[in-house]
Records
---
Amino acid sequence: MIPIKAENLSFQYRQNSKIILQNIDLTVDKGEILAVAGLSGAGKSTLCYCLCGIIPHVYNGLMTGNVYINGKNTRDLTLPQIATMLGIVFQNPDNQLFSFSVEDEIAFGPENLCVPRSEIERRVTETLKTVGMQEFRHAGPQQLSGGQRQLIALAAVLSLQPEILIFDEAMSQIDSAGKKMVRDMILKLKEEGKTIIMVEHDFENLALADRVLVLRDGRLAPFNGQLL
Ligand SMILES: Nc1ncnc2c1ncn2[C@@H]1O[C@H](COP(=O)(O)OP(=O)(O)O)[C@@H](O)[C@H]1O
Ligand SMILES: [Mg+2]
């Protein structure tokens, strides 16, 4: 089973004449870490939205071609169905966090998937430990710094234990000690056979990847150190 496959994928937002993604073909193998680089505005987040079904299910626009998650066309899946297979950490943690406490934030996903209470409790404790945020369990996400909010957004996605993870510049505001911890976590996820797509600029983070592609003019190409 191929975790992620895009076939001749093109996308254009409604009311924006620019073609953001152009005839993209992409296969991501199980256990692979794929990094995607590219200039700001190149369409990296848009690509993430296509790979996780937010496009076409949430954003309006013209999508042609197909995306398959574990062999199933995203057009035929609902977002809750996708959530059982794939988790995404958005570029801006404020688009992800909406609960009153860190604990509730992390429990929210598993609660919606009807995970038993004791298992949710275990996952909250474990994921907070993974991102080094145990002491903030009862804090409100709004009291936290940008980097801390990114760590909580990561924990919230990890608590769903998806087989496929997308990190859209998910470490951009995290300090260097935190980044080191997240890199270790990503390598551990890979060892467990998870499939990871990360949008990244940071060379230390890019070094984790099995393959680095650059998104440029709506197309993906092998990365040779040049974004332009
Ligand atoms: N909701 C939207 N409606 C119209 N245009 C958008 C929307 N979101 C992003 N865009 C445009 O799509 C292009 C790619 O954006 P994005 O995918 O966020 O790029 P990146 O993540 O590489 O910075 C940009 O030109 C941006 O202005
Ligand atoms: Mg982006």
---
Amino acid sequence: MSVRSFVHASMRGATAILSRIKNLIIPPFCAYCRDFMNSDEVLCERCLARIRPIVSMPLRITKKKELFIYAISDYEYPLRSLIQQKQYGNRCASRQLGRLLWEHTPLEQVQFDIIVPIPLHWTRYAWRGFNQSEEMANVLSKYSKKPVVHLLERSKKTLWQAGLSRENRAVNLRQVFNLAKDAYQYERMRILFVDDVLTTGATLYAACKALRPLRPAICSAVVVCRVINK
Ligand SMILES: [Zn+2]
């Protein structure tokens, strides 16, 4: 056994032990029905089967262009439990969400060259330790074999979107994204944005506007949930 494979084997062993210790401390119960589960997932198979799919919708960007948005479902239980887990910094939930994005939307038929996660502001990143859109994008990259490219950077801190009116949200998100330094090598590509929750569409609208200098061929987006404002 080479040193390298020995190190790999030891790391795999350590990961398995850590996973068992974690299961002893936090037993794997389904986040919604609280049933005991035999896996590292957050929602059990029975709850996943309850997710009600929705029809994808277009978001108008300019007179001629629209962004097609694919979502797993509306913001309702049991999927809502998974989103809430994720907000508490559960990386495992983000990965399960990534898999659901692939399995519960028509993404397999969507044409795209690169996957662009919507960035999180660094203060929130520091607080949570990871960006859930990035985690989901990495999972989608494995399924689609397309690369994750960080084309966007947040230029200033966005106020919390919740509680703001539609107009204020639009103002809040104006110039919120900058293009990354090496973005110009990705001109005229087919883009797939990844974000968690769609409310007014203002974030995705701002992301599309920021990418305009790259003249993308097509932009599509995939989100976990669509929140209907009533
Ligand atoms: Zn369950």
---
Amino acid sequence: MISIQQITEHVWLMDDSGEATGYVVTGTEQAMVIDTMNGSEDVQAVARTVTSLPLILVNTHGHPDHIGGNRFFDKAYLHPADIQLIGQFVNETDRALLPETVLTQEGDVFDLGGLHVEVFDLPGHTPGGICLLLREDRILFTGDSINRHLWMQLDGCASLETYLKALDRLAPVMERADWILHGHARGLESITLYQAMRQGVADLVNQKDMQVTESDPAYRWFGGENRMHPFDGADSVICYRPDNIWDR
Ligand SMILES: [Zn+2]
């Protein structure tokens, strides 16, 4: 079940069964849907309860809990580097239901009428992860790339060393945002989450003799057992594979 609630003047948060969040951003001419979550019901119909403007769907990345409801739309914007994830995670029957994929990447700006959404590449969690800056409202939509439960232990995730460089490259963008809305959120988070999470990644990359990793607790998930590195308080962790901290 998907609930929807207004959280700022232009932004609505959609929550799909407490498992993933998507957003509706309304300008004066168009509205943007950011991620379709698991798609447990008609996401377009949910968005239609708050706006009658033409809808643009953009996916922050290609994981199934972010594109699950794409089938309710005519087309979806996705970074080219994440196209391969659709082949990996979506079975053939469901793939036939997916809409046309339109490519988007850093440099693209969507004009919603009075509001502009700018695309930035942030590869790491997936190769084609993007962040979306809602310029006028200083809100950064980060998908799974900046959150309080960062998954970097998956096959296909960049090394933490490479991810740190990608995070640092976007430091100037963080100066243009006050808020983060990520893909598993309850509401607005301060942009300071970026600095805190970046520091957690840096602590792992800069450690000597695996001292940090050896004191990190085990992280058990459906794909196996890895490690998790706490940052910024008890609820925030970076999940990672000890053999994928540095570039090889
Ligand atoms: Zn993801």
